[in-house]
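QA checklist item 7 of 12: single-chain prediction sanity check.
[x] sequence parsed
[x] length recorded as 310
[x] structure emitted
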Amino acid sequence: MHKSIVLIIACAAGIVLVNSTSTNSEDPAYLTDELKFKLGKSEIRLPLYIYYNALTKQNDKNKKEEKLPLILCYPMFPGTKNEIEGMQEYYWGEGAKKRNIIIAYIEVGQYHMKMTTEDLSIIDILVNKSLERIKQICPVDEKKIIITGASMGAQVAFYAFNQNPSKFSGCVSMGGICPLELSNKLKDKHIYMIRGEKEDPMLAALIDEQVTDLKKIEAKVKYDILKGQPHIFDIDPKLLFNWIDHVISKPRLSNPKEGKCLICNSEISEDFSEEYKEKLYGFCSKKCSNTFIKNPDVYINTGKDSNLTK
């Protein structure tokens, strides 16, 4: 079966047509375009790449097109050919090929430094323009958008998330920090912070400090330090996409104290949960999960017999 997608992107400088062809469900719908918009007297031109399995669309034209989660990615500085090829393998191979999701990758390149050191407001414009165009291209579920970035791209992603957390389901910051004071609006928001063990000591300390601050404002933060890895690190894509799956797919937990294990009051792990009477409960470990299974009603009631009251 042969299928072709035609994209129409209404840019500040005109209309750009892009054709992408996919021959079967194993091939990536790898769409390329140039995102263009005005910034004062300057015209910003940025490469936009989309990984989207178009063949997952329903064939029945009478059915409403399914809205899909969007992973919005801003890479490290600078973007290179090898990096782009690596991202295609990474985001398609473990991402869009295996999941019914859309992954958009914006190569910010030379504008990274200007945005993160001179004028942070440019980030708001960039992210809004990116979302506007991607929604014209693909059927985006606006309730399931995750923004991610690496290095300076992490500053872009984290800044945008901090400014307007209600716009996103979560944020992944790889080797970067938010350049502004954290907003209290991040309470209960999903954030995944990752850095290499051999990160620059000053940046590592800043990342560690922001993780502590995120916990203070009760954000749902997951933090991984990758053993032996430097600032530009290799990460197992399964580690990243398992977290993404958890954020955009799993139903809300019914724990009486949000984010805390029903048994011992520790931070819950996304790896351990049990369903009981059509409700899902989270736990910090397999041990606590097994304890719950033996006598769930004891821990579900008001907490009289559980550690939650101690």
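[x] summary fact logged: The chain has a mean pLDDT of 75.
[ ] second reviewer sign-off
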